Amino acid sequence: MKFSKLFLVCALGATSLSAMAQQETKTLIYGGVIYSADVRNPHPQAIAIEGDRIIAVGNYDDVLKEAGKDAIRLDLNGKYLLPGLIDSHAHVAYAGFQTVTLSFPDGMKDAAAIQKFVADNQNNSQRDLNGVQFYSNLNLDYWNNIQLLSSVFNAPEYKNIPVVLAGSDAHTGWANQAMLRQANLTDEGLGKADPGVKAGTGLTADGKINGFVAEGAWDYVLNAIPPVDDNKIAQGILAGTKEMNSVGITAWMDPISNVRPLAPVFNAHPGLHDEGLLPAYTTLAAEGKLNAHVTGLALVNIHSTPAAIDNVVALRAKFSHTPDVRLAGIKIFQDGVIEYPAQTAKLSEAYLNRPGYNGDNTLDKAQFCQLIAKADAAHLIAHFHAIGDRAVSEALDGISCARQQNGDSGVMHSITHLEVVSPQSLPRFQQLNVAASMQLLWAGKDAASTTLIDGKVPAPLLKNLYPAGELYRHHALIAGASDWPVSSPNPMLAIYTAVTRLGELGELPPAREKMHREAMLQAYTLNAAKTIGRDKEIGSIEPGKSADFVLFDRNLETVSIDKLQGAKVLWTMFEGKQVYQAQ
Length: 583
Fold this sequence. Notes:
583 residues, 26 strands, Urease, subunit C, domain 1, 20 helices, Diaminopimelate Epimerase, Chain A, domain 1, 7-stranded mixed beta sheet, alpha/beta
């Protein structure tokens, strides 16, 4: 069905959604299945909007009275409408930036295949980044055959051509010898390097640098690439926003907003003058070009003193005057990633292939407690990257300390990723008012959840990967998230995987961790709005909230689960105007 047939012809003729917004007239929306995400009124018959706001929700006759007989009428023709979807953890600017870089294909098994790909793209401008051959979104399977990469990119013709390959997890990468020299990361200098650099540098059997870099060492390589400018950042944001709108998303939390794309993050200590994405975000919003509500977070190093919060408060004051962009909190890397060969996640037991090592143990817990308490007292969201069970426990301890010092500040803090969570941590989410921001597209059986961790992570820790079901039964608030560009931003794919636990290699046990689809619809609407601190403005269809909606071609509550993952967005509305329309 073509989009134009969704509209009734009014006295003024067929009117587009954009024209409705420009006229500031009232619009009556009706004629479909409406999911409001408001438990008091879950399936209203009609909605009235005026300008960028919802003014009435309820049965058709009452809403019609509020809208008035002259209202423009928007007939949904039986399709499925719900609030604009929300992603509680997405690097939209970074993902958009990737659209102007060259992605490295999956599955190239030999040097000839890689050489052909390189030759085919020798004139591709997206490959060159300030004098560096840069390839993005590298599948982590390549880390199992680093020698293959070296055989191509350390060949004689690359002696003076720096090459960087960025892992799809955003925590790892690989650099050839020319790039390692440019970054001053050499065999001779490694012994004097920062501990984080040494720990993240891959070595050959004879102790030589093999080009693989993780976190602190990845930072070291990125630091040798000239900074991305604001214009390119703005281009990335616009490209990323367009993609988000196309899958029905109208709001997100950008977890590293004070750092530019391809800038160091893991060992970084951003300061007052590190504004990152914020100038581009706010400029676009002020110009009316940002079709989304964005909650930004400032990266704060886990080892920072509480004084770092003063810088964030100052940045918040500078970058929170545009209604659609708000700097509202801090992001902390509590640990890294669990997969081989990086293995920087903090575990309660040692990695099987690295006896005595279970991740970094240098955290000053007393100082960390005061850092989180000061953020909480300043009404900043504290959002923690935590993969391993020990990292989750540390983050909860920091929040517990803040609650003890400050009482209930009313701020919902959050932990994201949550691959391994101890049974002891499960009830603490509800007790401490902490949201679980989960990328449940990862909760299927694939290489990352099998071959990259089997035999390397203690078996007891692998029994309940991504324990969404257990967290839900312990009354944790589950919020939908993608970590895009690490994985697809399409919520339908994540909901499908959350409900089935199916991945490319089959079903990921145990079955008790499967989620109900109704809970996942709530996870991508009101729960996500609470997690990003905007539930008074968005996340449900209620009077006074922003007129953000997404129309799907099928009923997401009743369609078979197999057909849910293929659900198509027909149009997306942000603040009362159409921002995406399916062809």
